[in-house]
Request: fold
Amino acid sequence: MSRITFAAVMAMVLVGSSRADARKPTGPPTLDEAAKFMQATEKGLLKRSITAERAEWVRMTYITFDTQAIAAAANEDLMAFVAKKAAEATRYVGLKLPYELKRKFHLLTVSLSMPAPADAKKREELARIGTTMDGIYGKGKYCPKRLNGKCLTLPDMYEIMAKSRDYDELLDIWKGWRMVSVPMKKLYVRFVELANEGARELGFGNLAELWNSRYDMAPDDFEAETDRLWEQVKPLYMDLHCYARAKLAEVYGRDKVPLDGPIPAHLLGNMWAQEWNNIFDILAPEKATAIDIDAALKAKKVDEKGMVRYAENFFVSLGLPPLPATFWERSMFTQPRDREVVCHASAWDIDEKDDLRIKMCIHINGEDFTTIHHELGHNYYQRAYKDLSPLFLNSANDGFHEAMGDLIALSVTPSYLKQVGLLDETPPGQLNALMKRALDKVAFLPFGLMVDKWRWKVLDGRIKPDDYNRSWWELREKYQGVAAPIERSEADFDPGAKYHIPANVPYTRYFLADILQFQFHRALCRQVIGFKGPLHECSIYGNKEAGARILKMMKMGLSRPWPDALEALTGERRMDASAILEYFQPLHDWLKEQNKGRKCGW
Ligand code: X8Z
Ligand code: ZN
Reply:
């Protein structure tokens, strides 16, 4: 699958003027030489990745001029190494290689989400732009006049978006946060040019093509796969949207929420309207109170670390080992008061072996309880594949990594919460629990898809810088049915207000994870546990067989194509949204009933 072109060969020529050239192999390449080359490359790659990770950790937990410079330099070194080795690897094109070795040559070319051009100056510029954009996001604040000099950080604003039901206050915060991304626009335009140049030197048409070459199929086929999955789930989303819009119109008025148009993006309880669980109170189907994890955690006086202990305990109940002592010593669990950090949650494996950590600004609420499970899913995946060779140290595809912790969180059911003592009673009725979950998982689907629909078009040149913001809102409306609540222009850069754009993290992974986690859940519940009831009532808590099945797949890392990994866990070889549909079927039936007589869509 590796795609080496003339550009990559030229890059090899350009970088190939060092003293080491004298020792460069001559004559036709041999298998033995290719294997040795790959072994040395993986060793060098691992060493540089660890150095870069460590620098990144320090930067993200302490954003300063210096830590940004140190992290950029380490990343630059890593990018230079990959570019050089990928170029040298062209020597082995055409050689008949054993499967694993062939796979590694391909993985080398797609290993970086931000590949740099061979030109040292451009590489330095790209690395600097990367940390600068991420730094702007991390340090971003909004200082409303009414607060007389007091500024709000993103976690502060996140909280207001979740709790406030005041149209104008929500609008003010929504607008305020989007001022942070305005200065990113220029940087992003340059970022696209440079990263695309890096991707072209590796033999890809552009960076999107590189990203989409990581799925064991042609990039175009992968894009078609995402469309196929979206078409499967769209009817469910449309009914949720229709119902939510009608309820929001009751609260804010039809003049603010027209019943035939998109929903204003600031009314859904989330800064990006990506998950809607925070407006559950407006949308609850049943009067009976829903499970309130926020209240349970507070009532039981569970603190931030205590929340992480609950999640760890879940993994341990599946037969997996507890987290190492260093996890507790080195993780960042709360937002430091005295320095700037990137609060966006992440999971780390600094030495690719045992140095597992999470970085979060935990708040004691149900949403963060779920996110903690998400992050530990990354850590347990990392630990499972740690003995593989460096280029296989990853999940089967990036959606698998994102799905693992979410899979566990699907088993955080009312009866599980009762079992671990967080709830005294499980509330009756199933619709509330399903609705709460749908506002997280179903609402997210079109957002999970559109972020990269936008980026793919930006990266392949179909969207030009003059159209960045307009096209972003076009896609937001097309897929999500949400609209900017006020006029936007090209002076704004609203994509940059979402972490993964400045941080350059591909986003389709979350869309895939949203589908995959239900496929995993269904397989474990039906095949391993033999659970016959509705899927949303099944919990794999305490089931060692389920744990063994999960571990078997995680241990494969990236060594095999993802359909093999999917098969190891589910017996299926295709991504399939029928599991998420089955899970929400009772709610979907109810929504259809509610929407009778309503005109859905926008
Ligand atoms: O970024 C994340 C995780 C870290 S990988 C917290 N998520 C996406 C987001 O926040 O936008 C998880 C769900 C989607
Ligand atoms: Zn994640």
Summary: The first helix runs from residue 6 to 15.
